[in-house]
Amino acid sequence: MGSMISVQDVRKTFDDGGEALKSVSLDIEEGEILALLGPNGAGKTTLISIICGLTNLTSGRITVGGHDVIADFRAARKLIGLVPQEIALEPFEKVLNTVRLSRGLFGLRRNEAVVEDVLRKLSLWDKRNSSIRELSGGMKRRVLIAKALVHEPRVLFLDEPTAGVDVELRKDMWDIVRGLQDSGVTIVLTTHYIEEAEAIADRIGVINAGEILLVEETGALMRRMGNKELTIELQKPVGDIPESLAAYDLQRNGHPCELVYSYDTQAARTGIATLLSDLSKAGLVLRDLRTKQSSLEEIFVGLVHKENAA
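-> structure tokens emitted (310 positions)
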């Protein structure tokens, strides 16, 4: 697969001198799901808006499907579907007409088969004659996705698509996204739900203060940056941790019979074998051992905190 979206040295500077994006470069592969993570004000929405032609860049170059977003705007924009954060829909219009109109805005002929297919995939067909104001928040989100898909784009931007959606509907959304990927659509997702990115993204991009900190395959990122915790459950409560175990930097977790040991999964030696031996020498008797892998949220928070402290 080749790059569907190519972002090269893109900068966005405002009239007051503030920089929203600082020399951002990023290639997004055809058919992949990329999750773009970052705190509020990091530049996520600005980057998406520039790619979609809603905001002008200050310098740099962006292509979508090989089309320059400035020099060949119409061809590039035709390839893109955008689901914004805000629910901006005509409340008294019917679902069916709302979606039909979006197809017409791209200069495409009326095609009821395509409209029906999109509505059925999003479980909206039974609501096609309902007015927007009659729908729940989750259903309105689905209408936004239908509007973005009805002109059959090859790239879909989802800017906080499950904000305010309950857990069950959020999981339904994930299934929809995976189905779109199976059909060859390239998907760029911004989200505050870290587990969402961890569950469905092929790669993770982290942006902070207008700069890309990293872009990496999700599993590789978890393996490379994720530490593990070993929770040691003892037969009896332990008071002061013996001095002979000081080198292991064992931590308390609030349970009198448990100690926690953190270790690097990529290190040549984890130190667990010698720790268990030294525990025994110190007279501490084991009851059980449990391990826990760092979550993507912990990795993300650590990255942003480190960058902000630099």
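The chain has a mean pLDDT of 86.
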